[in-house]
Write a structure and sequence with these properties.
The complex is a heterodimer of chains A (225) and B (456). Chain A has 225 residues and is of the alpha/beta class. Chain A folds into two domains: 118 residues, Rossmann fold, CATH 3.40.50; 95 residues, Winged helix-like DNA-binding domain superfamily/Winged helix DNA-binding domain (Arc Repressor Mutant, subunit A, Orthogonal Bundle). Chain A is built from eight helices and twelve strands. In chain A, helix 2 packs parallel to helix 3 and helix 6 packs across helix 7. Chain A starts with a strand and ends with a strand. Chain B is an alpha+beta fold. Chain B has nine helices and twelve strands. In chain B, strands 2-1-5-4-3 form a five-stranded antiparallel β-sheet. In chain B, strands 7-9-10-12-11 form a five-stranded mixed β-sheet. In chain B, a hairpin with a 4-residue loop joins strand 11 and strand 12. Chain B is rod-shaped, with a radius of gyration of 51 Å. The two termini of chain B are 56 Å apart. Classes of the chains: A alpha/beta (225), B alpha+beta (456). Chains A and B meet through helix 8 of A and helix 5, helix 6 and helix 7 of B.
Chain lengths: 225, 456
């Protein structure tokens, strides 16, 4: 995937680029908003990673301008501002996701992957399928190998999110933000317990596990190839 | 110079405008009085003269010159202030009590204002008079008038009295305005001086009160309260700085030492990996502490009030309980909720969720297996009371107050996961929402009680 990083701190940008390249991405770097806009105009990217505060043209203006010009590249904002207001402003300006500094590279990678997938035209789906696990969004029921799985409402949302991002690494923070709409860090890892409960429902008694823990990063739901 | 400054003050300008209005109405009043006194007297004199002329003209018509002459002689001899002169066409005297025709020119309607000499004890007096001239058939001239000397004197008196009273009115108004504005200016000067001192750095100065409980005292009280509030916020901020320094230095030092020691002698790749993973865990801990400190600081300054919205406390609580339910179950702890009534409040959903999460998280963390955590919400009067009760070890009485203070970590919690600032954050969010927080003994265990104001 071809990614654009717009970040004024040279060292941060270098580490970021290294991390992304090692996960198989091609990376271009712009050191300010004006350069970033130039690059975005001349090349089609899969995801743009934009710092909120940039010299010459700040991140918000950059993304607004790109959107006004019809550029629909998914944008991940990076920011040292952690206010809910700042997050809302970022998303309103046309950003697709918002990550507060300091962040874990694994978190960033997971979010970039999620944005890349989102780019593909999303059809109106009524059924999500991963291997022999099926989730019917209309009747709100789940089955694995034709066996019905009883899910609590929140477990349903959790599984739906994991299945929509099947094959990708999903972090605990992503789950907390998207399934619970909480933007804080619970002191104990409550998400782990929710996952193991879900795992007991969908994997227990089956030979192949679908819900995997990715060490140091999060979880991944995928069918064994 | 100070006097000149006084003229520029708003108070003085207001006093001046007031004075002008006052003077205008005073002049209107005076004009009215003058018109009704002096004007009335003059009109009366003229009326009397007109009536008399009418009478004399009729007399002439009825009995001719001899009759008229007779009447003029009769009236002239009666000292009632009436003046008469009957003359030939060349203005030579025929009869009357005036010696000669006056020199003054005849005005409109035949009216003449003139002076004449009246014999008196000391010779003669020059006196003012007003008369009307009538030419009779046959060329005879008749002059009928009145001595208006006293009346003129009274008019002069009234005029000068009015003039002086106008002068006194303006003078007093001017002095009053000056005094009034000087008083206002002086009170404002005190406030300005104090604020200038504060700007210059003397932050402990306060505006003195005059004790009269007027608007100026109210202004001073408000200013002082505002200064106190700013002062306590600043004290809070410097406490934040101190605590950030303290809470971050120690783990930073640990992180640095760990990396340094690893590099001291050659190690296997596995050892390096372990050291680096340890360093990452350590920095995650640091980030978590840092975020908590920032959040507490933000809640303490009251900035977060901008995000307040109407919330249903019950649903916020139910969501958080649901998040922790599996965790409790994994520890075989019963997590019980009792929330029967709706409890609408004004607040920040994110912060209140986090606050409740911290309380429930702590309760589960410090409750041994097979214990119980009870979360309840009830309404008492104007309040919504949230209670989180556990069957854990509790917090010793002596430490309960202490842990709710800003940025306090219990020594014992320093090695637990999390920033250890959980209760400080709870207290800060409570203060932000004007909610009262108390910690009590559940025998055994801890009861944390939050008392929110219900939305009106």
């Amino acid at each position: 995937m071809r990614l654009l990083i717009v970040e004024d701190d040279r060292e941060t940008a270098a580490y970021l680029a290294k991390g992304l390249k090692e996960s198989g991405h091609v990376v271009d770097h712009a050191k300010d908003g004006v350069d970033g806009l130039e690059l975005a105009r001349g090349q089609t990217y899969d995801v743009a990673i934009v710092d909120r505060m940039l010299p010459r043209m700040d991140g918000l203006t950059l993304v607004k301008t790109m959107r006004d010009e019809g550029n629909l590249v998914p944008v991940l904002f990076l920011s040292a501002l952690s206010d809910i207001d700042d997050r809302v402003r970022g998303l309103k300006a046309g950003g697709d996701d918002y990550l507060t500094k300091p962040y874990a590279i694994t978190e960033l990678l997971a979010r970039v992957d999620a944005l890349v997938r989102r780019r593909q035209p999303e059809q109106v789906q009524t059924k999500l399928v991963v291997g022999d696990l099926e989730l019917d969004l209309l009747s709100r029921s789940a089955t694995r190998n034709k066996q019905t799985i009883e899910l609590q409402p929140r477990e349903f949302l959790l599984l739906e999110y994991l299945m929509r991002h099947a094959g990708q690494v999903v972090t605990r923070t992503m789950l907390l933000e998207n399934v619970w709409d909480y933007h804080f860090d619970p002191q104990t890892n409550v998400i782990d317990v929710h996952i193991s409960r879900l795992r007991a429902k969908i994997d227990k008694g089956f030979a192949d596990a679908l819900l995997h823990t990715v060490r140091g990063a999060g979880y991944c739901l995928r069918a064994v190839p | 110079m100070r006097f000149l400054n006084l003229f520029r003050t708003t108070a003085f300008r207001l006093a001046l405008i007031y004075l002008l209005l006052f003077a205008a109405s005073a002049f209107a009043l005076i004009a009215f009085i003058y018109w009704n006194t002096a004007g009335f007297m003059a009109a009366q004199t003229d009326e009397t003269i007109n009536a008399e002329i009418q009478g004399l003209r009729e007399q002439y018509g009825a009995s001719g010159l001899p009759g008229l002459r007779q009447v003029v002689i009769e009236r002239s001899s009666v000292a009632r202030g009436g003046l008469y002169l009957l003359a030939n066409s060349d203005q030579s005297r025929i009869a009357g009590n005036l010696d000669r025709w006056p020199d003054a020119p005849t005005g409109q309607g035949g009216w003449v204002d003139f002076t004449y000499d009246r014999p008196s004890l000391s010779g003669s007096d020059r006196r003012s008079a007003r008369a009307r001239h009538l030419e009779l058939l046959g060329g005879f001239q008749l002059l009928v008038g009145r001595d208006v000397h006293e009346r003129r004197e009274i008019e002069d008196r009234i005029e000068s009295a009015l003039f002086w009273s106008a002068c006194i009115t303006v003078g007093l108004g001017l002095i009053g305005g000056l005094l009034m504005s000087r008083n206002v200016t002086r009170r404002l000067d005190v406030i300005n001086e104090t604020t200038r001192d504060i700007i210059d750095g003397d932050l402990n100065r306060r505006v003195p009160l005059s004790g009269s409980n007027d608007e100026f005292d109210e202004l001073a009280t408000n200013l002082n309260d505002m200064l106190d509030q700013i002062g306590s916020l600043m004290a809070g901020m410097s406490e934040v700085a101190d605590n950030i320094a303290h809470d971050l230095r120690t783990p930073l030092n640990r992180l640095r030492s760990r990396l340094e020691v690893t590099l001291m002698k050659p190690a296997s790749e596995l050892e390096y990996r372990e050291a680096l993973e340890g360093a990452i865990a350590e920095s995650d801990q640091l980030i978590s502490t840092f975020n908590s400190l920032l959040l507490i600081a933000r809640a303490e300054t009251g900035q977060a009030r901008e995000n307040f919205e109407e919330l249903e406390l019950k649903s916020v609580l139910t969501d958080v309980v649901e998040l922790y339910e599996p965790l409790a179950e994994a520890k075989r702890i019963t997590l019980k909720t009792s929330a029967s009534q709706a409890a609408p409040i004004n607040g920040d959903r994110g912060l209140i969720s986090q606050m409740l999460a911290n309380l429930i998280d702590n309760a589960i963390k410090y409750t041994p297996e097979d214990g119980m955590v009870t979360v309840s919400i009830r309404r008492t009067g104007r309040h919504a009371v949230v209670e989180v009760r556990d069957t854990g070890a509790g917090i010793p009485q002596a430490e309960r107050e202490h842990v709710l203070r800003r940025f306090v970590r219990l020594e014992a919690s320093r090695n637990e996961p999390g920033s250890g600032l959980g209760l400080s954050l709870v207290a800060a969010v409570a203060r932000l929402h004007d909610a009262e927080i108390t910690l009590g003994d559940a025998k055994p265990g801890l009861i944390a009680t939050l008392r929110f104001h219900l939305k009106d």
